[in-house]
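Posting for a labmate who doesn't have an account.
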Amino acid sequence: MLKTTPVPTPPHPNPHAEGVSNDEFRAAMSRLAAGVCLITAHETPLTAGGPRGEDVGMTATAFMSVSLDPPLVLVSLREGSRMDDLLAEQPLWAVSVLSEHQLQIAGRFAMKGRISDRLLFADVAYERGEASGAPLLTGALATLECRTENRVEAGDHTLVIGRVLTAAQPHPDAQPLTYYRGRYRHLGA
């Protein structure tokens, strides 16, 4: 008689206690279309009278309106990222809602292992926000300047809730840049 041993079912890659894997979660969430924003902040000088701090930027698709009264927005930042560390110390930041013509800017500020932020901003057209001191992109659909109201740790991200200090629509009729299924996309008219 031949003796057989049952073969165990391989576990999901990176399973969580609830059973969903990282890959399954990413695949499901990639089906949610999102607008694309550039989150910016200005690093304050290390010492009074010292050299000017750097501008810092990151591409975000996890950005949303939270409240109308008071006007609040939320951005999700990877825990320990440069922007997360900066906004833990610097409460003022800005958002530029990107148009479809700003695809290369989105890609540039989303790169892993990227070059310094100073070089990333080198040939990008922007104005400095009066309330935040942060870069506001020329050609953006909308711009917001914010002050952090609350930070919430959520898994491997920090949810930063900001009170909107200014809001403008520099190019309200341009088409938005969207992110869907792992790629930047143009919204079909």
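Reply:
Got it, the structure tokens are right above this. The CA atoms of residues 45 and 51 lie 6 Å apart.
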